[in-house]
What we know:
The complex is a heterotrimer.
Chain A: H1 2-28, H2 34-38, H3 48-58, H4 64-76, H5 90-125, H6 130-142, H7 147-164, E1 182-183, E2 187-188, H8 191-224, H9 227-234, H10 239-269, H11 271-276, H12 282-291, H13 295-323
Antiparallel strand pairs in A: 1-2
Chain B: H1 3-17, H2 27-36, H3 38-60, H4 63-67, H5 101-137, H6 139-154, H7 157-168, H8 172-199, H9 202-209, H10 214-251, H11 262-271, H12 278-305
Chain C: H1 19-22, E1 26-39, E2 42-55, E3 59-63, H2 70-77, E4 86-94, E5 97-98, H3 104-110, E6 115-118, H4 122-125, H5 132-144, H6 148-161, H7 167-171, H8 180-192, E7 198-202, H9 210-227, E8 230-235, H10 238-244, E9 247-252, E10 255-261, H11 262-267, H12 272-280, E11 339-342, E12 345-347, E13 359-360, E14 363-364, H13 366-375, H14 380-392
Amino acid sequence: MLGYAIRRVAQAIPVVFLAISLLFFLFYVLPGDPVTIISGGTGRNIPEATRQNIEEKYGFDDPIPVQFVNYWKGVLTGDLGTSYRTGTPVWETVKQVAPNSIRLALWALMLEAVIGIGVGLVSSVKRYSFFDTLVTLTTTIAMAIPVFVTGYLLIYFFAIRSFQDGWPAWMRMRSGGTPDEWFLFIFPASDDGWRKLILPAIALAFVQIAVIARMMRATMLETINTDYIRTARAKGLTERAVVFRHGLRNALIPIVTLIGLDFGTLVGAAVLTETVFSYNGMGSAIVKAAQLRDVPVVLGLTMVVVIVYLFVNLLIDLSYGMLDPRIRYED
Amino acid sequence: MTAIQEELEADAELVHEGGDSADPSGFADVWKRFKRNKLAVVGLVIIGLLVFCALFAPLIVKLESAIGGVSKLDPEVGTSPARLPPSAQHWFGTDKTGRDLFARVIYGARISLLVGFSSVILATTIGVVLGAAAGYYGRWIDSLVMRTTDVALALPYIVLAIALVVVFGRSLLTIILVLGALGWMSDARIFRSSIIQQKSLEYVEAARAIGCSDRRIIARHLVPNSIQPVIVYATLGIGTAILSEAALSFLGVGAVEPTPSWGLMINHGRAALRSDPHLLFFPAAFLAITIVAFTAVGDGLRDALDPKLKR
Amino acid sequence: MSTTTDESAPTEAADGPSPAQAATDPVLVVEDLRVHFETDAGTVKAVDGMSFAIGAGETVALVGESGSGKSVTGMSLIGLLPKPVAHTTGSIRWKGQELVGASDDVIRKVRGREISMIFQDALTALNPVLTVGRQISEMVRVHLGASKRDARARAIEMLEAVGIPEPKKRFDQYPHEFSGGMRQRAMIAMAISCDPQLIIADEPTTALDVTVQAQVLEVLAEIQERTGAAVILVTHDLGVVAGVADRVMVMYAGRQVETAATDDVFYRGRHPYTVGLMASVPRVDRDGVVADDDGTGRLKPIDGQPPSLLHPPSGCSFHPRCELRGMPSPCGTVDPPLLEVAPGHWSACHFADRLIERATETGSDLAAVAAAIEAQAGDPEAEAAANRIAEAAGIEEDPS
């Protein structure tokens, strides 16, 4: 098992390296003058002296391969560079936004898991019932609705109309912003904080809830028709024991994998949700930085995203071995 | 129900309806099965309507209403007062610069479908070619293709898309190229698996035994038989591409004014959400319905092409 | 006994006893068991009127081709068929208690505890994510209320009883870590853990190598001896039957066509299907193979295909393939009832009696019997006899 883990980690490293290098070249090989950005944008005339200063300071006068090497040297010592725009070290930005993204992703995950698995399970047990057909139809549609549509719908009703039309206080949410204080890392510390968190979490989780519900239903149905379930019944176990102790354990394996993989994606891909809700996470930070050609920030944040993604994938792979004993021996 | 019963039933139904169950992937059978999925049929109708709107937009509304262009100084300004609510004259009201929203939304169909179809055609072509090479020839070609897709898939899609568009400039052509470049990877993987699966079947050996050249084998035999999952993915991919274009435009890194992109309209509508929600919700609704339609059709195709997966 | 109210071909109008009443010390009595599957294409009559009894400690083989209904019969005994689809009627009485239509609680208590089942493919029949030991001890805990420790001890005991080496170690292993034969034995261990009085074995050896087959059968026999349990062995492998069974029930198209002691079935078959079966398998117990008409010594398969269970043939379901359907015969219109043609030997054939006329050392010579029947075609006595049979059955022209 340990050997397997080490091998997987070793596989992941070159991927990170290649991925970030790819981005590096993308940004540096291109048109666009970083000096201009740093000094405040286009339309200004930059004195030659200032230009030379900046170039020297940031190393733009060095040939690209040298810049490349320097960059990676910096990364390995923990220096992700400084923002062109604000001059703050990228690492500071990461420290500020990364936890927020992780929190949002965790909440979305919890919603997905609980609602998705629950709905899927009930749907499979009551196959062909009204509930089931309703679920199948809604999930097919829900899976395809873009997150900003869901997001704005939620905002419109729960953050705007709820105030305008006087809905009960507990239903009124905030339409944007990020909770400032947190309790035990994931719980907002204030009422206001909760109201800022709920809508983005729901919007983010929305599509995946549908996906997971469908998958849960499908795997459950598949599992219920297997031979070993028939054996379990033949043993005289109660239907409950059959479904939960025998069926569910097997059915959950692919679902858990899916949820885990999702987390890795959520952290990075929450770009749209964060923008819609003005949530201060990595996604929106990357977008803003990309718009401003603030390369170090983009690279640094993306690297964090990629590492988190690969790390989570790795964890999932390893835990899969724990869940499904058949896998342990396949290496 | 046991597996035997299901197969009995499926075959019996097909025979009953006149299909030839000896060739379950024949067009007539596929169409029959597709028809059974009501949502997919609705989706198909919606797509039909959208294509109609896209092609015949100028017949429905005037271009200037959508784009503006009354004043040479500010090409965006429309002919009517800004921010009007829906009325008989302007079905969807007017946007922040006075353009007729209905017109813009109809023209938006053009943009979405254009980007959707072109980028998917591009992505699928690249994907099929590379996937076939990787699957058929194996070894270093295979490793190369797979490594590339691995690396590219490790990066978050949106981030890559944003980076590329920022770098190469904001135009529809760039967007199409970028989406095509990002989309070929899933197609390649799927096609490659399909090819690998088919490759080991006996008919390929038979073809080789009678002296068919590699290229002929691939083109005449492997491709038609492996193409099914790709068709499904391509359809679903159109939905994704439309979504991506809208997302990029929404984030301000996609289409440029005065292009009537739905994503762009949603972006404009944000500010007015409180007072004039229709500015956001009309384009949003069209976007959602379009994507749902493509997804439903893609799902329906998947179910129709492989009956065993149905239940 | 009246016919039932369905529209199929008329069945037993027998005045005589049914096999269900014949056994001496029955623990299981099945009467007129029918299992119909409702599909969109129609009603599939998988089991269409089975009646039999199993005595304590007996080994009864249930033999037939694929699709004959033998597995379905086995599974219906403990209600394992999917409920909304499978419609079970008739009577299944276990030690006097009626199981058809009984509440879930009642059936659950019988399953595993009194009647347990062994399945064909142990790899798919065992839960892959639970240890073997856990799956066995689960039964003991549920049915006998044992504590975790006691259940574990019992499970290890069972593993030992079926001849699995290092049972303590094996307790914590997963099914995929066992070899095929060991897995099957583990399944047997699971089945006997609560000392059931009836074990239904559904093709227990089909998925195994021949040598392993022998081992598994041996284990089964040992268990039987020790516990006195009865065994219903569902199989299509006649070799297994010959070595192990006391009695054999031959099934065709959902019905019993013949029931008798093993030797009688093998050497003195009284139904054309049985005779045909015995002639179509290679046998070591006679010179060469069956001597047929031209003495070529070839295996003789039965012509034709098993019938559709959706639309079974009118009259006797075997008649389209039967060599005896000479003229005159009611075979095409009247379903032959299962009658006792010799003590303990039942057959459902209009010509059961005639099948001993031309007996060879391996069974009847069907061709000769057929010739004899044909020779009597036009013989008014023969015709009258045929008509009498039809009358006694209460001729109801089958509409199909």
